[in-house]
Design a protein that fits this description.
Chains A, B: Its cofactor is Zn(2+); Mn(2+); Fe(2+). Chains A, B: This is Transcriptional repressor. Chains A, B: It comes from Vallitalea guaymasensis. With about 140 residues, the first copy, chain A, is α+β, with helices and mostly antiparallel strands. The first copy, chain A, has a single domain, classed as Orthogonal Bundle (Arc Repressor Mutant, subunit A), CATH 1.10.10.10. Chain A contains 6 helices and 5 strands, in the order H-H-H-H-E-E-E-E-H-E-H. Chain A has helices at about 5-10, 20-30, 35-45, 55-65, 110-120, 135-144, and strands at about 70, 80-85, 90-95, 100-105, 120-135. The interface between A and B is large, with 36 and 36 residues. Strand 5 (about 120-135) of chain A pairs antiparallel with strand 5 (about 120-135) of chain B. Chain B binds a DNA duplex (25 and 25 nucleotides) through helix 2 and helix 4.
Chain lengths: ~140, ~140
DNA sequence: ATTTCTGCAAAGGGTTTGCACGTAT
DNA sequence: ATACGTGCAAACCCTTTGCAGAAAT
């Protein structure tokens, strides 16, 4: 989904397009990885120093309402945010060193689904986070 | 791992076995599902009404140090705790209605691993949470 | 004109911490 | 005897909220 589609969805849902809102969403949209609240604030203040933290928090609600926000909660108890624009459900390969996150398409295995089915469990949603080292960081670490 | 093994591990790691600590760990040990801090406190107060919240929080650190604690962070932003006693890496089928959690063994599919390998990503660990309705709750919901 | 949105500051709620006392070893 | 652990209360920090003014429709 391109940025204009996001804005259209926003407007069509009855939300107003303010300067702050645009900047807040843009920051997430252009980030290549999930970001923390602190990073999000810095990115927005870069474009409009007057933006208040609470405005971002309030826009989290908006993005959640639109179904566009993905909250990632790593094992380190931090919270990171990213836009969920993919039509297919996806997951992230998260680098433990540089923090870069790359989306990959979901594919729970057939055997996995079979195990769940056998337990007569009605699976609605799932959450998968994969941690390791990206190619670049792996190479860097090897050098040492 | 049975309860005495947990206690042995605790002692062998240099921690003292206090009445509170025993009760706190026992509560988790005997729960058949991951519990919230509130539930944990109630379970411990049941055995020793004087136990303080901060004591549980401090014992979380101990259990994490021992590698025995599993923190589950559902999409609803809550945090639940459970002991991780299985030797095999496992995941939970978590019921969205009754909260019951059942461990299942891990099996990332071969295709999944292939995708990751192709990206030359060095996978270290992963975290999978599966949400839905258990058989019983599914039946209950059908009745309505 | 009307409704929604924002900045500000204060309140809230879960978690952590300092300290003096208590307990396990 | 000593080091570790606990209860209590205060401190912390992130997030939420009430309000009055500002901006979008």
């Amino acid at each position: 989904m391109d940025f204009n589609k996001v804005i259209d969805l926003l407007k069509n849902s009855g939300y107003k397009l303010t300067n702050q809102r645009k900047i807040i969403i843009e920051a997430l949209y252009h980030s290549d990885k999930p970001i923390s609240m602190e990073e999000w604030l810095l990115l927005t203040k870069d474009k409009n120093p007057g933006i208040n933290l609470s405005t971002i928090y309030r826009n989290i609600d908006v993005l959640e309402d639109l179904g566009l926000l993905e909250k990632i909660r790593p094992k380190d108890d931090s919270i990171k945010y990213t836009l969920n624009l993919m039509e297919n459900h996806s997951h992230f390969l998260i680098c433990k060193r540089c923090g870069k996150a790359e989306a990959i398409e979901c594919c729970l295995s057939k055997e996995f689904k079979k195990v769940i089915e056998d337990k007569e469990f009605d699976l609605i949603e799932h959450n998968l986070e994969l941690y390791g080292y990206c190619k670049e960081c792996h190479n860097e670490l090897d050098k040492k």
